[in-house]
Design goal:
Low-confidence stretches of chain A: none
CATH class of chain B: Alpha Beta
Mean pLDDT of chain A: 94
CATH class of the largest domain in chain A: Alpha Beta
Family (chain A): Belongs to the ETF alpha-subunit/FixB family.
CATH superfamily of the largest domain in chain A: HUPs
Binding site for FAD (chain A): 214, 239-240, 253-257, 270-277, 291
Largest interface: A-B, 93 and 80 residues
Radius of gyration of chain A: 23 Å
Pfam families (chain A): ETF (PF01012), ETF_alpha (PF00766)
Bound molecules: flavin-adenine dinucleotide
Helix content of chain B: 25-40%
Structural class of chain A: alpha/beta
Low-confidence stretches of chain B: none
Radius of gyration of chain B: 22 Å
CATH architecture of chain B: 3-Layer(aba) Sandwich
Distance between the termini of chain B: 64 Å
Oligomer: heterodimer
Protein name (chain A): Electron transfer flavoprotein subunit alpha/FixB family protein
Organism (chain A): Nocardioides eburneiflavus
CATH topology of the largest domain in chain A: Rossmann fold
């Protein structure tokens, strides 16, 4: 049996990465001859959520309730998931590769003294049970064996596309109130502030993003780039070097530790295209790289490129746009 | 007095192209160079601040080969006051092995009269990305653990740690001794001063053998993802390419106004 930890949003919905994990679990279940898939979640799901999970092929939904789950504690969640796992006899426990998913599964791994594989993208075979996971921020892949039971792993975001199952699962709801020892509640959330106003909102939804990296040279080096952004009604997105140097604010950062963008056009200027930056912009429909180095990863991965100094190219482009507009 | 231990790892600088070793067991850093994981640089900064606020010293620890001393000296140069080097081939150590070695250091330092009541680590290493050394360490020691926080302070034996969670900014409060794993973004690691660097060069470093035989990672091998074929269309060089760029903008329909 496969047990999938499902994360639920404040609005009571299964988050997309959890639905991706269930979709991944179905392929694994099929390879194993059609073993059932159960979900475990914190809180009491409403009918709509139960319906969505059933549509994704889930047989049984274990809902963890009780005072121990009023606020987040990685150890308490792990205690609950472990009790469900033992009761249901699961040999595989999965979660999505989110902070919560990785944290809870790492607790399970430590408790059971078995390995845990983070950010898996595919499985290789069942005997031995081999998974492939992202390492070095996605720049390399690791084949890893999970021969001990339970096999624990998290699924990297977007490794599969979440989709409902061909056949519905029973979606039977089981409410559980596992005992959680006090020791597992020592490190729990004591308060949650409203999320900070998300200043990166326009960046994430922009149709065009003008990007700038170290090549901009200084905080003053952004004038032409900002003018281009203005001419195209675009947002400005920057690399981490730019925010670390204090040239631009953090909410403009694109990448693994910044925003993930998917505009129709991304124009990265003076950005090398390090894997951590690429993680945030790879879903742009078209990329026009402007860089002095024809071999920069951003140039070789782009759809279009101009080789040259951005301080010469951008003013010429701005002038050309103004000229055509008359 | 608070005397944190902060754990760092020597990793390949992955901002350039990643090359694997011939046996496929690791990343080859001969061309790219090495660095300290970004999350751990922030953990070092937090450890140094906590130690300074609490009137104690911060000890930096690494498990790595002889060259990893460079990562220890970098941490000493920005304010750590002691360093421990578990000399070992990190490739042979899985996350559970590393956690066991850190726990052995914590116990031995306590026995020697220089105890640590707080251990800071990066949330995950930039190379192996295992997301679990800190948690496994906490279980080894029987201490509570919080993960992925970007701010940490200690007051009267209580740790306050906070970071962004799925529903907003979360704050944890827990008693010492504790383990905390840090995500970059909350603090700016300081640059070493020249005197800092000089002092670090001469600082004594405790060298140790691993306390136990490693079980090893569950790795079969590393592979590189297939390169996506380059289909880049070069529009030109320098300012002369401007008309071609604007043609493209028109084609893509992003110039309309
Ligand atoms: C854990 C971790 C998380 C990270 N998260 C992120 C993240 O979220 N986002 C991010 O961006 N980075 C992130 N990084 C950093 C990343 O690895 C790179 O260091 C960073 O993206 C490099 O920024 P850059 O391309 O601006 O600078 P560089 O790598 O220095 O590249 C500058 C580029 O500009 C070109 N250039 C120079 N001058 C000019 C000019 N006048 N005109 C045109 N081109 C010029 C150069 O040829 C070069 O290609 C992270 C790193 C780690 C370890």
């Amino acid at each position: 049996m496969i047990l999938v930890l499902v994360e639920v949003s404040p609005a009571g919905e299964a988050v997309e990465t959890s639905r991706e994990a269930i979709t991944f679990a179905r392929d694994l279940a099929a390879a194993g001859g059609g073993v059932p898939i159960d979900a475990v979640l914190v809180g009491t799901p409403d009918d709509a959520l139960v319906g969505v999970l059933a549509a994704h092929g889930v047989r049984r939904i274990h809902a963890l309730t009780g005072a121990a789950y009023d606020s987040f504690s990685g150890a308490a969640w792990a205690a609950g998931v472990e009790q469900v796992r033992a009761g249901a006899g699961s040999v595989v426990v999965m979660a999505s590769g989110t902070p919560r998913g990785n944290e809870v599964l790492a607790h399970l791994g430590a408790r059971a003294a078995v390995p845990m594989a983070a950010n898996v993208v595919s499985f290789g075979g069942l005997s031995p049970f081999t998974v492939t996971r992202q390492v070095v921020g996605g720049a390399a892949l690791e084949e890893m064996q999970l021969s001990q039971r339970p096999a624990l792993f998290t699924v990297a975001g977007h490794a599969v596309e979440a989709r409902p199952a061909d056949t519905h699962g029973a979606g039977e709801l089981v409410v559980e109130t596992p005992e959680v020892p006090d020791a597992d509640l020592v490190a729990r959330v004591v308060s949650t502030d409203e999320p900070e106003p998300d200043l990166s909102g326009t960046l994430k939804s922009a149709k065009v993003v003008v990007g700038a990296g170290r090549g901009a040279g200084s905080a003053e080096g952004f004038d032409d780039l900002l003018e281009l952004a203005d001419l195209l009604d675009a947002s400005l997105g920057v690399s981490r070097v730019v925010t670390s140097l204090g040239w631009r604010p953090h909410h403009e950062q694109v990448g693994q530790t910044g925003s993930r963008i998917s505009p129709d056009l991304y124009i990265p200027c003076g950005i090398s295209g390090a894997i951590q930056h690429w993680a945030g912009c790879s879903s742009a429909k078209a990329i026009l790289a402007i860089n002095t180095d024809p071999d920069a990863p951003m140039v070789t991965k782009a759809t279009h490129a101009v080789i040259g100094d951005l301080h010469e190219v951008i003013p010429a482009v701005n002038a050309e746009i103004r000229r055509r507009r008359g | 007095m608070v005397s944190p231990l902060v754990c760092v790892k020597r990793v390949v600088d992955s901002s350039s192209e990643v090359v694997l070793t011939e046996d496929g067991q690791g990343v080859d850093g001969r061309f790219a160079g090495f660095t300290t994981s970004a999350h751990e640089e922030c953990a070092v900064e937090l450890a140094v601040r906590i130690a300074a606020d609490g009137g104690g010293g911060a000890t930096v620890l690494t498990l790595g080969d002889a060259d990893a001393v460079e990562q220890l000296r970098s941490a000493l140069a920005v304010g750590c006051t002691a360093a421990t080097h578990v000399l070992a081939d990190p490739q042979a150590f899985g996350p559970a092995d590393v956690a066991r070695e850190i726990a052995a250091v914590v116990r031995d330092h306590a026995a020697a009269g220089t105890p640590h009541d707080l251990v800071l680590l990066g949330n995950d290493a930039a190379d192996s990305g295992d997301f679990q050394v800190g948690i496994r360490l906490a279980y080894e020691l029987g201490w509570p653990v919080v993960n992925g926080v970007s701010a940490v302070s200690v007051d009267g034996g209580v740790v306050t740690a906070s970071g962004s969670g799925p529903d907003g900014h979360e704050t944890f409060r827990l008693p010492l001794p504790a383990v905390v794993t840090v995500l970059e973004g909350g603090v700016e690691p300081r640059y070493p001063t020249v005197p800092g660097r000089m002092k670090a060069r001469k600082a004594p470093i405790e060298e140790r053998e691993p306390a136990a035989e490693p079980v090893g990672p569950s790795r079969v091998r590393l592979v590189l993802p297939p390169p996506s074929p380059s289909t880049v269309q070069v529009l030109g060089e320098g300012p002369a390419a401007a008309p071609a760029v604007v043609d493209l903008l028109e084609q893509l329909g992003v110039l309309a106004r």
